Amino acid sequence: MALPPGATRLQLIDLHPPPADIADLVTRGMKRTPRQLPAWLLYDAEGSRLFDAICEQPEYSLTRTETALLERQAGALARALGPGVLVEFGAGSARKVSPLLQALRPQAYVALDISAEHVHSACQALQERHPEVPMLAICCDYSLLEQLPAHPWLDAGRRLGFYPGSSIGNFDPAEAEALLRRLRLLLGEDSRLLIGIDQPKAVERLEAAYDDRAGVSAAFAFNLLQRLNRDLAGDFVPERFHYEARWQSEHSRIAMALVSRQQQTVQLAGRDWHFAAGEPLITEYSVKYSPEAFLQLAGRAGWRGADRWSDPAGDLSLHLLEPG
Ligand SMILES: C[S@@+](CC[C@H](N)C(=O)[O-])C[C@H]1O[C@@H](n2cnc3c(N)ncnc32)[C@H](O)[C@@H]1O
Questions:
Q1: Using CA positions, which residue lies closest to atom 8 of ligand 1?
Q2: Does domain 10-16+56-201+289-323 have CATH number 3.10.450.50?
Q3: Band of the pLDDT at 3, cuts 50, 70, 90?
Q4: Which residue among 15, 48, 114 has the greatest number of ligand 1 atoms within 8 angstroms of its CB, and so is best to mutate?
Protein backbone atom coordinates (compact mmCIF):
# COMPACT_ATOMS: atom_id res chain seq x y z
CA MET A 1 0.00 0.00 0.00
CA ALA A 2 1.45 3.38 -0.99
CA LEU A 3 2.04 5.60 2.06
CA PRO A 4 3.39 9.15 2.06
CA PRO A 5 7.18 9.23 2.66
CA GLY A 6 8.00 9.30 6.37
CA ALA A 7 4.50 8.06 7.40
CA THR A 8 4.62 5.68 10.35
CA ARG A 9 4.10 2.09 9.23
CA LEU A 10 3.12 0.70 12.64
CA GLN A 11 0.15 1.84 14.69
CA LEU A 12 -1.47 0.53 17.89
CA ILE A 13 -5.18 0.73 18.71
CA ASP A 14 -5.94 -0.15 22.35
CA LEU A 15 -9.43 -1.59 22.95
CA HIS A 16 -8.54 -3.60 26.06
CA PRO A 17 -11.64 -4.40 28.20
CA PRO A 18 -11.91 -2.00 31.19
CA PRO A 19 -11.26 -3.32 34.75
CA ALA A 20 -15.02 -3.37 35.60
CA ASP A 21 -15.73 -5.70 32.65
CA ILE A 22 -12.87 -7.97 33.72
CA ALA A 23 -14.25 -8.13 37.27
CA ASP A 24 -17.68 -9.10 35.83
CA LEU A 25 -16.19 -11.80 33.60
CA VAL A 26 -14.22 -13.25 36.50
CA THR A 27 -17.24 -13.19 38.82
CA ARG A 28 -19.28 -15.05 36.19
CA GLY A 29 -16.49 -17.57 35.65
CA MET A 30 -16.11 -18.21 39.38
CA LYS A 31 -19.85 -19.00 39.59
CA ARG A 32 -19.62 -21.69 36.89
CA THR A 33 -19.43 -25.38 37.75
CA PRO A 34 -16.60 -26.21 37.45
CA ARG A 35 -15.17 -22.73 37.96
CA GLN A 36 -13.65 -21.54 34.67
CA LEU A 37 -12.07 -18.23 33.68
CA PRO A 38 -11.63 -16.91 30.11
CA ALA A 39 -8.36 -18.23 28.69
CA TRP A 40 -7.21 -14.76 27.61
CA LEU A 41 -6.70 -13.84 31.29
CA LEU A 42 -3.62 -16.08 31.18
CA TYR A 43 -1.94 -13.54 28.90
CA ASP A 44 -0.67 -10.60 30.91
CA ALA A 45 2.91 -9.58 30.05
CA GLU A 46 4.39 -12.44 32.11
CA GLY A 47 1.85 -14.96 30.75
CA SER A 48 2.73 -13.99 27.18
CA ARG A 49 6.43 -14.50 27.99
CA LEU A 50 5.68 -17.90 29.56
CA PHE A 51 3.61 -18.99 26.57
CA ASP A 52 6.62 -18.30 24.33
CA ALA A 53 8.69 -20.48 26.69
CA ILE A 54 6.08 -23.28 26.43
CA CYS A 55 6.56 -23.23 22.65
CA GLU A 56 10.26 -24.06 23.20
CA GLN A 57 9.55 -27.15 25.33
CA PRO A 58 10.35 -30.51 23.71
CA GLU A 59 6.90 -31.88 24.61
CA TYR A 60 5.03 -28.99 22.91
CA SER A 61 5.47 -29.73 19.21
CA LEU A 62 2.46 -27.76 17.89
CA THR A 63 4.39 -24.52 17.28
CA ARG A 64 7.33 -26.22 15.56
CA THR A 65 5.04 -28.36 13.38
CA GLU A 66 2.78 -25.49 12.33
CA THR A 67 5.73 -23.16 11.67
CA ALA A 68 7.43 -25.76 9.46
CA LEU A 69 4.17 -26.34 7.55
CA LEU A 70 3.74 -22.58 6.99
CA GLU A 71 7.32 -22.27 5.79
CA ARG A 72 7.01 -25.25 3.44
CA GLN A 73 3.64 -24.25 1.98
CA ALA A 74 3.93 -20.45 2.03
CA GLY A 75 3.82 -20.14 -1.77
CA ALA A 76 0.76 -22.38 -2.16
CA LEU A 77 -0.98 -20.69 0.76
CA ALA A 78 -0.36 -17.22 -0.69
CA ARG A 79 -1.69 -18.30 -4.10
CA ALA A 80 -4.81 -19.79 -2.51
CA LEU A 81 -5.43 -16.75 -0.30
CA GLY A 82 -4.93 -14.19 -3.08
CA PRO A 83 -4.22 -10.51 -2.52
CA GLY A 84 -5.61 -8.61 0.46
CA VAL A 85 -5.10 -7.42 4.03
CA LEU A 86 -3.85 -10.12 6.40
CA VAL A 87 -5.65 -10.07 9.78
CA GLU A 88 -4.18 -12.34 12.46
CA PHE A 89 -6.28 -13.32 15.50
CA GLY A 90 -4.31 -13.90 18.73
CA ALA A 91 -1.02 -12.97 17.09
CA GLY A 92 1.02 -12.99 20.33
CA SER A 93 4.69 -12.84 19.35
CA ALA A 94 3.66 -13.04 15.67
CA ARG A 95 6.32 -15.68 15.16
CA LYS A 96 4.46 -17.69 12.51
CA VAL A 97 3.40 -15.04 10.04
CA SER A 98 6.74 -14.14 8.38
CA PRO A 99 6.64 -16.78 5.59
CA LEU A 100 3.11 -15.64 4.70
CA LEU A 101 4.11 -11.95 4.69
CA GLN A 102 7.03 -12.84 2.45
CA ALA A 103 5.00 -14.88 -0.03
CA LEU A 104 1.76 -12.90 0.09
CA ARG A 105 3.07 -9.31 0.32
CA PRO A 106 -0.31 -8.18 1.73
CA GLN A 107 -1.56 -4.62 1.45
CA ALA A 108 -1.37 -4.44 5.26
CA TYR A 109 -0.92 -6.73 8.26
CA VAL A 110 -3.27 -6.40 11.25
CA ALA A 111 -2.41 -8.23 14.49
CA LEU A 112 -5.13 -8.65 17.13
CA ASP A 113 -4.18 -9.68 20.65
CA ILE A 114 -5.25 -9.08 24.23
CA SER A 115 -1.65 -8.48 25.36
CA ALA A 116 -0.98 -4.89 24.20
CA GLU A 117 2.73 -4.41 24.84
CA HIS A 118 3.54 -7.90 23.68
CA VAL A 119 1.78 -7.60 20.31
CA HIS A 120 3.10 -4.08 19.80
CA SER A 121 6.72 -5.08 20.33
CA ALA A 122 6.17 -8.21 18.20
CA CYS A 123 4.99 -5.98 15.35
CA GLN A 124 7.97 -3.65 15.82
CA ALA A 125 10.32 -6.60 15.32
CA LEU A 126 8.27 -7.87 12.39
CA GLN A 127 8.30 -4.47 10.72
CA GLU A 128 12.09 -4.51 10.62
CA ARG A 129 11.93 -7.72 8.62
CA HIS A 130 9.05 -6.56 6.40
CA PRO A 131 9.43 -2.78 6.13
CA GLU A 132 7.22 -2.61 3.04
CA VAL A 133 4.09 -3.84 4.89
CA PRO A 134 2.02 -1.31 6.92
CA MET A 135 1.16 -2.89 10.30
CA LEU A 136 -1.66 -2.27 12.73
CA ALA A 137 -1.63 -3.83 16.21
CA ILE A 138 -5.04 -3.96 17.90
CA CYS A 139 -5.29 -4.84 21.58
CA CYS A 140 -8.76 -6.34 22.14
CA ASP A 141 -10.74 -9.41 23.13
CA TYR A 142 -11.51 -10.61 19.60
CA SER A 143 -14.22 -12.96 20.88
CA LEU A 144 -16.33 -9.92 21.89
CA LEU A 145 -15.45 -7.56 19.05
CA GLU A 146 -18.58 -6.33 17.18
CA GLN A 147 -16.56 -4.96 14.28
CA LEU A 148 -12.99 -4.12 13.40
CA PRO A 149 -12.15 -0.47 14.08
CA ALA A 150 -12.38 1.96 11.18
CA HIS A 151 -8.93 2.33 9.68
CA PRO A 152 -7.90 2.82 6.04
CA TRP A 153 -5.38 -0.05 6.20
CA LEU A 154 -8.20 -2.45 7.09
CA ASP A 155 -10.08 -1.39 3.97
CA ALA A 156 -7.10 -1.56 1.63
CA GLY A 157 -8.25 -4.90 0.18
CA ARG A 158 -10.13 -8.11 0.82
CA ARG A 159 -9.65 -9.29 4.42
CA LEU A 160 -7.72 -12.53 4.82
CA GLY A 161 -8.02 -14.00 8.31
CA PHE A 162 -5.13 -15.94 9.84
CA TYR A 163 -5.85 -17.84 13.06
CA PRO A 164 -2.99 -20.24 13.86
CA GLY A 165 -2.08 -22.17 17.01
CA SER A 166 -5.34 -24.16 17.21
CA SER A 167 -6.49 -21.39 19.56
CA ILE A 168 -10.12 -22.02 18.56
CA GLY A 169 -9.74 -25.09 20.81
CA ASN A 170 -9.71 -22.78 23.87
CA PHE A 171 -13.44 -22.26 23.28
CA ASP A 172 -16.02 -24.99 23.87
CA PRO A 173 -17.69 -26.15 20.63
CA ALA A 174 -20.75 -23.87 21.00
CA GLU A 175 -18.52 -20.85 21.72
CA ALA A 176 -16.18 -21.87 18.90
CA GLU A 177 -19.10 -21.95 16.45
CA ALA A 178 -20.20 -18.48 17.61
CA LEU A 179 -16.62 -17.22 17.28
CA LEU A 180 -16.27 -18.57 13.72
CA ARG A 181 -19.54 -16.82 12.85
CA ARG A 182 -18.16 -13.62 14.40
CA LEU A 183 -14.94 -13.92 12.36
CA ARG A 184 -17.09 -14.04 9.21
CA LEU A 185 -18.71 -10.76 10.23
CA LEU A 186 -15.40 -9.13 11.17
CA LEU A 187 -13.73 -10.21 7.94
CA GLY A 188 -16.65 -9.47 5.60
CA GLU A 189 -18.46 -11.32 2.83
CA ASP A 190 -15.61 -11.77 0.38
CA SER A 191 -13.11 -13.01 2.95
CA ARG A 192 -10.91 -16.07 3.49
CA LEU A 193 -9.82 -17.64 6.77
CA LEU A 194 -6.65 -19.71 7.18
CA ILE A 195 -6.93 -21.56 10.49
CA GLY A 196 -4.63 -24.06 12.21
CA ILE A 197 -6.30 -27.06 13.85
CA ASP A 198 -4.50 -29.56 16.09
CA GLN A 199 -5.83 -33.11 15.94
CA PRO A 200 -6.48 -35.71 18.64
CA LYS A 201 -3.44 -37.93 19.25
CA ALA A 202 -2.03 -40.33 21.85
CA VAL A 203 -3.18 -39.34 25.35
CA GLU A 204 0.34 -39.49 26.88
CA ARG A 205 1.62 -37.15 24.17
CA LEU A 206 -1.18 -34.64 24.66
CA GLU A 207 -0.96 -34.63 28.46
CA ALA A 208 2.82 -34.18 28.32
CA ALA A 209 2.45 -31.29 25.84
CA TYR A 210 0.35 -29.39 28.36
CA ASP A 211 2.30 -30.45 31.47
CA ASP A 212 5.97 -30.36 30.44
CA ARG A 213 8.74 -31.72 32.66
CA ALA A 214 10.35 -28.30 33.10
CA GLY A 215 7.10 -27.04 34.68
CA VAL A 216 6.62 -24.12 32.26
CA SER A 217 2.95 -24.96 31.55
CA ALA A 218 2.33 -25.15 35.30
CA ALA A 219 4.06 -21.77 35.81
CA PHE A 220 1.86 -20.33 33.05
CA ALA A 221 -1.28 -21.46 34.91
CA PHE A 222 0.00 -20.29 38.32
CA ASN A 223 0.75 -16.88 36.83
CA LEU A 224 -3.04 -16.47 36.50
CA LEU A 225 -3.31 -16.47 40.31
CA GLN A 226 -0.65 -13.74 40.54
CA ARG A 227 -2.58 -11.72 37.99
CA LEU A 228 -5.88 -12.14 39.83
CA ASN A 229 -4.23 -11.18 43.12
CA ARG A 230 -2.71 -8.07 41.52
CA ASP A 231 -5.58 -6.87 39.30
CA LEU A 232 -8.67 -7.98 41.25
CA ALA A 233 -7.53 -7.75 44.87
CA GLY A 234 -7.30 -11.53 45.18
CA ASP A 235 -5.59 -13.41 47.99
CA PHE A 236 -4.86 -16.77 46.31
CA VAL A 237 -2.01 -18.68 47.94
CA PRO A 238 -0.46 -20.63 45.04
CA GLU A 239 0.92 -23.36 47.34
CA ARG A 240 -2.67 -24.32 48.17
CA PHE A 241 -3.24 -25.50 44.57
CA HIS A 242 -1.62 -27.98 42.22
CA TYR A 243 -1.63 -27.94 38.43
CA GLU A 244 -2.93 -30.74 36.22
CA ALA A 245 -3.62 -31.31 32.52
CA ARG A 246 -5.98 -34.22 31.75
CA TRP A 247 -7.36 -35.61 28.49
CA GLN A 248 -11.18 -35.83 28.61
CA SER A 249 -12.00 -38.21 25.78
CA GLU A 250 -15.77 -37.61 26.00
CA HIS A 251 -15.11 -33.95 25.04
CA SER A 252 -12.01 -34.56 22.89
CA ARG A 253 -10.12 -31.99 24.96
CA ILE A 254 -7.32 -31.37 27.38
CA ALA A 255 -8.59 -29.70 30.57
CA MET A 256 -5.98 -27.61 32.37
CA ALA A 257 -6.76 -26.78 35.97
CA LEU A 258 -5.42 -25.52 39.28
CA VAL A 259 -6.82 -27.96 41.81
CA SER A 260 -7.39 -26.92 45.41
CA ARG A 261 -5.24 -28.99 47.79
CA GLN A 262 -7.57 -28.27 50.70
CA GLN A 263 -10.83 -26.66 51.75
CA GLN A 264 -10.25 -22.94 51.59
CA THR A 265 -11.85 -19.55 51.12
CA VAL A 266 -10.30 -17.10 48.68
CA GLN A 267 -11.07 -13.41 48.28
CA LEU A 268 -11.41 -12.11 44.74
CA ALA A 269 -13.18 -9.16 43.09
CA GLY A 270 -14.71 -8.13 46.40
CA ARG A 271 -16.20 -11.54 47.29
CA ASP A 272 -15.35 -14.70 49.21
CA TRP A 273 -15.13 -17.91 47.18
CA HIS A 274 -15.15 -21.30 48.86
CA PHE A 275 -13.11 -24.16 47.34
CA ALA A 276 -13.61 -27.77 48.43
CA ALA A 277 -10.51 -29.99 48.63
CA GLY A 278 -9.90 -31.36 45.11
CA GLU A 279 -12.06 -28.70 43.43
CA PRO A 280 -10.63 -27.46 40.10
CA LEU A 281 -10.36 -23.95 38.73
CA ILE A 282 -10.21 -24.54 34.96
CA THR A 283 -7.56 -22.25 33.48
CA GLU A 284 -8.16 -23.34 29.87
CA TYR A 285 -9.39 -26.14 27.64
CA SER A 286 -7.78 -27.24 24.41
CA VAL A 287 -10.35 -29.04 22.24
CA LYS A 288 -8.84 -31.21 19.49
CA TYR A 289 -10.75 -31.71 16.21
CA SER A 290 -10.27 -34.20 13.41
CA PRO A 291 -10.35 -32.39 10.03
CA GLU A 292 -13.85 -33.77 9.41
CA ALA A 293 -15.19 -32.68 12.82
CA PHE A 294 -13.68 -29.22 12.36
CA LEU A 295 -15.22 -28.77 8.90
CA GLN A 296 -18.64 -29.70 10.30
CA LEU A 297 -18.21 -27.05 12.99
CA ALA A 298 -17.05 -24.46 10.43
CA GLY A 299 -20.00 -25.39 8.18
CA ARG A 300 -22.47 -24.68 11.00
CA ALA A 301 -20.85 -21.23 11.30
CA GLY A 302 -21.27 -20.46 7.60
CA TRP A 303 -17.81 -21.39 6.28
CA ARG A 304 -16.88 -24.08 3.78
CA GLY A 305 -13.52 -25.80 3.44
CA ALA A 306 -11.74 -24.73 0.24
CA ASP A 307 -8.39 -26.42 0.83
CA ARG A 308 -6.27 -28.10 3.51
CA TRP A 309 -2.56 -28.65 4.17
CA SER A 310 -1.16 -31.08 6.76
CA ASP A 311 2.26 -31.89 8.19
CA PRO A 312 3.75 -35.25 7.09
CA ALA A 313 2.78 -36.98 10.36
CA GLY A 314 -0.80 -35.69 10.16
CA ASP A 315 -0.62 -33.97 13.55
CA LEU A 316 -2.28 -30.75 12.50
CA SER A 317 -3.92 -29.08 9.51
CA LEU A 318 -4.15 -25.62 8.07
CA HIS A 319 -7.67 -25.21 6.68
CA LEU A 320 -8.52 -22.56 4.14
CA LEU A 321 -12.16 -21.53 4.65
CA GLU A 322 -14.41 -19.47 2.39
CA PRO A 323 -17.87 -18.10 3.14
CA GLY A 324 -20.17 -21.04 2.44
C1 LIG B 1 -2.09 -19.98 22.41
S2 LIG B 1 -1.43 -18.37 22.09
C3 LIG B 1 -1.10 -18.51 20.35
C4 LIG B 1 -0.13 -17.48 19.86
C5 LIG B 1 0.18 -17.58 18.37
N6 LIG B 1 -1.00 -17.28 17.55
C7 LIG B 1 0.66 -18.96 18.04
O8 LIG B 1 0.02 -19.62 17.21
O9 LIG B 1 1.69 -19.38 18.57
C10 LIG B 1 -2.91 -17.41 22.11
C11 LIG B 1 -2.68 -15.92 21.80
O12 LIG B 1 -3.94 -15.29 21.62
C13 LIG B 1 -4.11 -14.22 22.54
N14 LIG B 1 -5.52 -14.33 22.96
C15 LIG B 1 -6.11 -15.36 23.60
N16 LIG B 1 -7.42 -15.13 23.73
C17 LIG B 1 -7.66 -13.92 23.15
C18 LIG B 1 -8.84 -13.14 22.96
N19 LIG B 1 -10.04 -13.57 23.39
N20 LIG B 1 -8.71 -11.96 22.32
C21 LIG B 1 -7.50 -11.51 21.88
N22 LIG B 1 -6.35 -12.21 22.04
C23 LIG B 1 -6.44 -13.41 22.66
C24 LIG B 1 -3.11 -14.42 23.64
O25 LIG B 1 -2.69 -13.20 24.21
C26 LIG B 1 -1.99 -15.16 22.91
O27 LIG B 1 -1.05 -14.26 22.36
A1: 165
A2: no
A3: low
A4: 114
